[in-house]
Amino acid sequence: MEWDSTLAGHASSWSSRCQMGHSQDGNYGENIYYNTMNPQDANFHMKNAVQSWFDEHKQFRYPNSCGGACGHYTQ
């Protein structure tokens, strides 16, 4: 893994808009998850976020196709 200044600029630009949702530029993967929670439950909810992204593997067909929603998994 290495730092990508172009990607960092894209992320900064999109996040400064404070819009919930994926950007319209389909060139970058964006793992988005939101939930309401009590602060004491934060670890539980973070595990749910990662699990929900991983569960998309069921839609992925090797070597490289998606039969449904699997954009978070393939990132």
From TrEMBL:
<feature type="domain" description="SCP">
    <location>
        <begin position="1"/>
        <end position="75"/>
    </location>
</feature>
<dbReference type="InterPro" id="IPR035940">
    <property type="entry name" value="CAP_sf"/>
</dbReference>
<feature type="region of interest" description="Disordered">
    <location>
        <begin position="1"/>
        <end position="20"/>
    </location>
</feature>
<dbReference type="InterPro" id="IPR014044">
    <property type="entry name" value="CAP_dom"/>
</dbReference>
<dbReference type="InterPro" id="IPR001283">
    <property type="entry name" value="CRISP-related"/>
</dbReference>
<dbReference type="Pfam" id="PF00188">
    <property type="entry name" value="CAP"/>
</dbReference>
<protein>
    <submittedName>
        <fullName>SCP domain-containing protein</fullName>
    </submittedName>
</protein>
